[in-house]
Design brief:
This protein is an alpha/beta fold. It has ten helices and twelve strands. The chain has helices at about 10-20, 35-40, 70-75, 95-110, 110-120, 145-155, 180-185, 210, 230-240, 280-295, and strands at about 5, 25-30, 45, 60-65, 85, 135-140, 160-165, 175, 190-195, 220, 245-250, 270. Helix 1 (about 10-20) packs across helix 10 (about 280-295) and helix 4 (about 95-110) packs across helix 6 (about 145-155). The longest helix has 17 residues, at about 95-110. The two termini are about 25 Å apart. Bound molecules: oxalic acid.
């Protein structure tokens, strides 16, 4: 059974691992494969596929997204509806996101923002005790990636809470479920970590009215998707100081336009969607395991429910 690989970045790291892990499978590259061959390929491994990718794949049986978020793929105009769409579950991303989130939480908790201002003004001033019990961290979204963040934060003693669409129980975490509980959840977040998938339901979830529920001087870490937050509202709240600090890895428009105020805002740290990358070996092993399951009629891990959008 053959595979098609379609990624805008370098194909070589993926090919190297595919050749090592699945030497018996032929791998074709998008852009280098004729129409006749494309029509016979059952499995497509894709990341940000071009608009014309799916039309020639008339023999397709499953699509494997080479990342966790499928928002862009679900919006693809040519996406076939009759085959399963499968995402990467963790794929090495959870550990990287956990490091990123920990960095953001410690930045706020140990007041590195204030200390940087003091240093700029040559001010020697002890800003006082940093008690972990007073830095309440809330995680919006309780999927596989959030789990990694929770495990990383737990030993530090921060009170942890989490919000999800449907009820979940996570040891050591106060959990909230459903939209009605969102204000109460947000009110207890000195640091809010955004880790939800982007779907029709979650787009703009953190509206100005919802951001208003955060306690004064809260901080926001977004490592999911920019469109989850009303960016103009976030900016206004950063300007006023109602929100103390934002660590932003994702934006509604990427790359973030060079004239966007986030770039130069004193309360914002911008990173270019680099909080976590799929690790090719882990991703390929997961995809090959899923293909083997599919071929023997067993369930696959990470199958998207198109009605939910994740
Ligand atoms: C992903 C991402 O969804 O990298 O995997 O954003």
């Amino acid at each position: 059974m053959t595979l098609l690989l379609a990624t805008p970045g370098a194909a070589e790291p993926w090919l190297k691992i595919l050749r090592a892990e699945a030497p018996d499978r032929a791998v074709h590259l998008w852009g280098q494969t004729d129409a006749q061959t494309l029509a016979t390929i059952p499995y497509a491994l894709v990341w940000k596929p071009p608009a014309d990718l799916f039309a020639p794949l008339t023999g397709l049986k499953a699509i494997f997204n080479l990342g966790a978020g499928v928002d862009a793929l679900l919006a693809h105009p040519g996406l076939p509806k009759h085959v399963p769409l499968v995402r990467i579950v963790d794929g090495g991303m959870a550990a990287q996101m956990a490091e990123y989130a920990l960095y953001g939480v410690l930045h706020v908790h140990r007041r590195f923002d204030l200390l940087a201002q003091q240093q700029a003004a040559s001010v020697w001033n002890d800003p006082g005790i940093c008690d972990p019990a007073e830095t309440r961290v809330g995680i919006l979204g309780l999927g596989a990636l959030a789990q990694g963040v929770i495990e990383k934060l737990q030993p530090f003693g921060f009170p942890l809470s989490g919000w999800s669409r449907s009820p979940r129980s996570v040891p050591g975490v106060t959990t909230y479920a459903g939209l009605d509980s969102l204000p109460a959840f947000l009110a207890g977040c000195d640091v809010l970590i955004v880790l939800l998938p982007l779907t029709a339901e979650t787009e703009g979830l953190l509206s100005d009215a919802r951001l208003a529920h955060l306690p004064p001087g809260a901080s926001v870490i977004n490592l999911a998707r920019g469109a989850l937050i009303d960016e103009a509202a976030l900016l206004a709240r950063l300007d006023s100081g109602a929100i103390r600090f934002a660590l932003l890895d994702v934006f509604r428009q990427e790359p973030l336009p060079t004239d966007h105020p986030f770039w130069r805002h004193p309360r914002v740290k911008v990173t270019p969607h680099t909080s976590a990358a799929t690790l090719p070996r882990e991703a390929i092993q997961q995809i090959l395991g899923n293909i083997a399951a599919f071929e023997r009629g067993a369930p696959m891990q990470g199958v998207i429910d198109p009605t939910r959008g994740y």
